[in-house]
Amino acid sequence: MIFGGFSPDSIIDRVHDGECKVIITADGGYRRGSASLLKPNVDEAVESCPTVTDVVVVQRTNSDVTMVEGRDHWYHELMAAAAPECPAEPMDSEQLLYLLYTSGTTAKPKGIMHTTGGYLTQVAFTYKYVFDLKPETDVYWCSADIGWVTGHSYIVYGPLVNGATSVLYEGTPDTPGKDRMWDIIERYGVTQLYTAPTAIRMFMKWGEQEPQKHDLSSLRLLGSVGESINPEAWMWYNEHIGGNRCPIVDTWWQTETGGQMISPLPGVTTLKPGSACFALPGIGVEVVDEEGHPIERGGGYLTLTRPWPSMLRGIWGAPERYKDTYWSRYPGRYFAGDGAKIDDDGYIWLLGRVDDVMNVSGHRISTTEVESALVDHTSVAEAAVVGATDDLTGQAIVGYVILRGGVTADDALVDELRAHVATKIGPTARPKRVIIVPDLPKTRSGKIMRRLLRDIADGNTLGDTTTLADPSVVEAIRESALHGPGSGA
């Protein structure tokens, strides 16, 4: 499963890795009231995917698309010829259920393996109890994309296995108006809303007058997913969407964990705005220091200490990468790659990624993958990418590039580079800024000090620069960020 609208290159990477034989797509999808084509990207990708023998196409927008004889099949025609009965295929609990690709610290995405029995067990349990499901009366809405793990676990598998009534929405939250979500909640009597902090911050920016246009009294529980929610957004969500009466379940989990791991339980846990609170029953969580020693209070690294039903079973085709990525830093523990702190009351507060994977609106994007896309452009000699703090998206992608000789640096080239990344990887990876610089801050061993680039992007006071081969380069980069192409100056 991949996101609709992925670039051909991104489709090729995932199809090659999974050795896929069939692709199911659509002619297009609707976005802001207009059809957005999907099939052409698949057509371009399949030219480089010899394992693919068939492409099944759902006719969604009645768009004019090319259908290749013998390879491409309309879904509605296949269904018209299909038998009316399809007996369920018995599966062993450890047989593969799906592969879902997520970014790693190398440019190659990781194919996360989830199996049938354990995954279904955990998403069924967590969905029922974290959202306090009452299937006879509830109308649940998770606003995530189905191509994201949240959509897998809490739009498809968790709700369906519990017999829930769900809202599925195709479109953006601001079309035809910025009150689109609140209109849907009022119209269908939604009782639980599960959305992302990025969306909540966007709603805050649009103003409380938008939800005030609608009756949101059907809501009885709110959820947050994708990144830790800042206390200000939590309070706004509580007041303007929940009417100060709905518990908020701020959930921490990952593509790799399959299901929710840390979350308050409604009606049981005393809430703290911005905290995911405690591990769910049966989940072993410890925060450790650099040496892997558990700490009772303060900040450190989030680890999981015992198996859980929906844990990833591996990285497809890369068992050593699986061990190195998740199990090598703290032997005997799963290292989540996130920082966390424990307060004086024992509550867990998530602090975000500690590696080179950025979290942009809940999408995990590798810095290396974006750097590779920038360097792929004929004008770029070298690139470094960091995740800068962003009030709306949590992190924003900022790229620093050195141009090849003879290339003119201007705003048009900056826009071209941003678009190039979106074409190579997908729209979610489009950098918010590309800064053209004369050089990059490197140590004497040639390592790029991304910490300094992050400080420049965030406007922070710079830390120690004594290990740089040329400390003067930092001021040149700062000047480019303030006054160079793409700065708006």
From TrEMBL:
Listed InterPro entries: Ac_CoA_lig, AMP-bd_C, AMP-bd_C_sf, AMP-dep_synth/lig_dom, ANL_N_sf
GO cellular component: cytosol
Domain named AMP-binding enzyme C-terminal: residues: 369-447
Protein name as it appears in the record: acetate--CoA ligase
E.C. number(s) listed in UniProt: 6.2.1.1
Pfam name, any one: AMP-binding
Biological process according to GO: acetyl-CoA biosynthetic process from acetate
PANTHER family in the cross-refs: ACETYL-COENZYME A SYNTHETASE (PTHR24095), ACETYL-COENZYME A SYNTHETASE 1 (PTHR24095:SF14)
SUPFAM superfamilies reported for this sequence: Acetyl-CoA synthetase-like (SSF56801)
